[in-house]
Amino acid sequence: MASHGLAQTSAFYLVRLALLFHDMQRDTSGVVSRYNHAALLICYVFEGELVKVYLFALALVFNTFIAPSALGQQSAPTIPTTGFAGLDQYRASRIAVFTDDYGQLARYRDANAALKPPAPGENRVIFFGDSITDGWHLDESFPGKPYINRGIGGQTTPQMIVRFRQDVIDLHPKAVVILAGTNDIAGNTGPMHLDDIEACYANFAELARASQIRVIFSSVLPVHNYTDKSKDFFAQRSSDKILALNRWLKNYCDSGAGACLYLDYFTSMVDEKGLLQKDLAEDGLHPNAAGHKIMAPLAEAAIAKALK
User: Fold this and answer.
1) How far is residue 219's CA from residue 248's CA, in Å, rounded to a whole number?
2) d(Cα 215, Cα 126) in Å, to the nearest integer?
3) Based on C-alpha coordinates, what's the Rg of the chain?
4) What is the CATH number of domain 85-306?
5) 197 contact partners, CB below 8 Å, separation of at least 6
6) Are 262 and 249 in contact (CB under 8 A)?
7) Three-class DSSP category at 176
8) Residue ranges per domain, the chain?
9) pLDDT on residue 98
10) Exposed/middle/buried for residue 88 (C-beta within 10 Å: 0-12, 13-18, 19+)
11) What confidence tens digit (pLDDT) does each residue in 185-221 have?
C-alpha cells in the first residue's frame, strides 16, 4: 500500500511538472518568477524527500530547456522609425555601435597610436567629418601634403564630439577642416534640432581654440535627386535646413566668436535649382572625383589663409 501511495504521489508531481513546463513554454516572459512561485508553493504544501526530488527535476528542466528558450525568444531591440526604410535599416544595423562605441573611438585608435608627432615646421591638417570626408582620397587631391583623414561614414556631430580629442586634438594639427551636419539633418542618430547641431559646432570651435588649433568650418553640401539612388538621401535632407546651418556657420565664423574660417563649398557646387550639380555625385550626396576637383582648391585656399 505504501508503494502504491508513493506511486500516486510521484505521478502527481510528474503531472504538475509537465503542466508547469508546458505553461512556461507558452509564456516565457515571467519564467523566473513563475518557477520561484511554484517552488515556494510546493514547499509550503508538501514535505518529504520526494519534494526535493521534484524541485531538483524542476530546476534541471528550467536550466536545460526553459531559460535558454526564454533568452532565445526575446525580441531584438527596436528603434523608432524615421519613415525611410533604408535609413531605418541602417540605424538598426548600427545598434551595436550606438551602445558599445558611440563615437567609434576604435576606428582610428591604432592609426593614431602609430602616427608620429608633427615634424618641426610641419603644417599638419586634420580633415574631420563623416562619409563625405571618409571617402575622400586626400593623397590624390593634396599630394605630398601632411593632411590626415579622420572621417567616419554615417556619423553625426554628437558622435564626432566624442572622438574630437583622440582624432584631432591629440594629433597636434595646426588646423582642422570640419565637414559635418548632413547626417544630423537626416537623423542618423535620431532627430536633431538645428540649435543642437549648432551647439556641437560651437563645441568643436571652443575645444580646438583651447588647443591652439585653427578651425575651418565647411559648408554643408547641397544634395540632389536626379538619380534613382539619390532619392532617399535627398528626401532625408531638407534643403531649408542645409541653408539654415550654412547661414549659422558663416555668421559664427564672421562674428569672430570661435576664431574660425568658413569654407564655402556650397556656392561652387549648387546648380540653378538649388541642388547639387548632377555630375558631382552619383548618389546625390557623396562627391565623386569631379566633386573633389572643385572642393580641393577651395579647401587649400582656406587652409593657407588659416595658417597665415
Assistant:
1) 10
2) 10
3) 30
4) 3.40.50.1110
5) 157, 181, 184, 185, 245
6) yes
7) strand
8) 2-72, 85-306
9) 85
10) middle
11) 999 999 999 999 999 999 999 999 999 999 999 999 9
